[in-house]
Fold:
Amino acid sequence: MSDKVITRFAPSPTGYLHIGGARTALFNWLYARHTNGTMLLRIEDTDRERSTDAATAAILDGLTWLGLTWEGEPVSQFERAPRHREVAEDLVRMGKAYYCYATPEELNEMREKARAEGRPPRYDGRWRDRDASEAPAGVKPAIRIKAPTEGETVVNDSVQGEVRFPNKDLDDFIILRSDGNPTYMHAVVVDDHDMGVTHIIRGDDHLTNAARQTVIYNAMGWDVPQMAHIPLIHGSDGAKLSKRHGALGVEAYRAMGYLPAALLNYLARLGWSHGDDEVMSMGDMINWFDIVDVNKGAARFDFQKLEALNGVYMRKMDDAELLDIFIATLPYLENGVPILAGLNEKTKAQLLAAMPGLKERAKTLVELADGAAFLFAQRPLVLDEKAASLVGEKPRTVLSGAFDALKGVNDWSAASTESAIREFATRSELKLGAVAQPLRAALTGRATSPGVFDVLTVLGREESLARISDQID
Structure:
């Protein structure tokens, strides 16, 4: 086995890249980066009924969006079937596997008998030492591995520790079906060996597979990669993660307005930690991550924590960088379409100017789009219910006064407009809020927005005065 660490992420293209898969990919990627190794990608598309090209595309798209790059071309497991067959035939030639001619009826009988006797259903090895000359006519054989019958198979796992499996429980499992197709158990071993994989990092639902796969490695005389079976993710209530907890595809997280960097930081903290560090840069994670530090227990997924962390990332991010990500994400956001339609050089500049105020109030890009909507609203603005209640009869008089005060401002800025409004409020014996609230409603159509003087600055003199005038009339 090479000295260089080679990990692999091996999803099945039967659906999107779900959040648990994304974390597995991240742990493989981080470990490869941490050790100056590489991560490979294999698409486990042997289940022809359920594998789709659309799912493969969604997985590649999800990994790319997260920035989890892999080395070389993705390997298709299905396309390697001839190689899987070749190894199965080699094992028969070496006396480590054999042709089994048991019929479906016989296998069923075996299962029924075991059940009646209260034993787990196991193949009874009836063709293990028989000669093929005894084979019944017209039965296509499967190939079964000769599993050891005594002692135990030991898996030395970086996360789970030493796990022992009694060999009597492993039975002679099938590696090549009677139709000539390899089983998943066999294909995985051949692929990992041929791809030079040194470290297998995957969900702990594969832990029992590790014993059977070790049997195949040993039969071929191949080095067994270092295994690491990471615990699954549970919902915040401790139950297995499901749709209601957030077991969604990563494309759903993009649509909900999460930043890839924040999502990766959050996923890394599910089952692994570095002291009390909550917010970690990609560089920090690469430096600190080691697979042996992953917890054995299941991690809990918490949307509120993810949202809070996302807000931290947005506030820390440079305004121009956040604007670029925001614009790139708009097509995926439900409320991004109107903004996308109204984007031009002028509105882009306005968005950039408004960004400091917008990002202070938003925890996701969806909330950011919501906050930015006022920039793209068409005159006369349609006020939402709360805003409309702020612009009643008396406030209209206040708006009128504010309009006159602002009309006199020529050097238009946050400071000059604030000074004019404060002066007007003092003169009219009004609290600043009594002027700012109807003003905000008239300018944005909302009761909440970035600071009202920031809004005035970003909209500019002409548009601001026109919007206020609309509401007075």
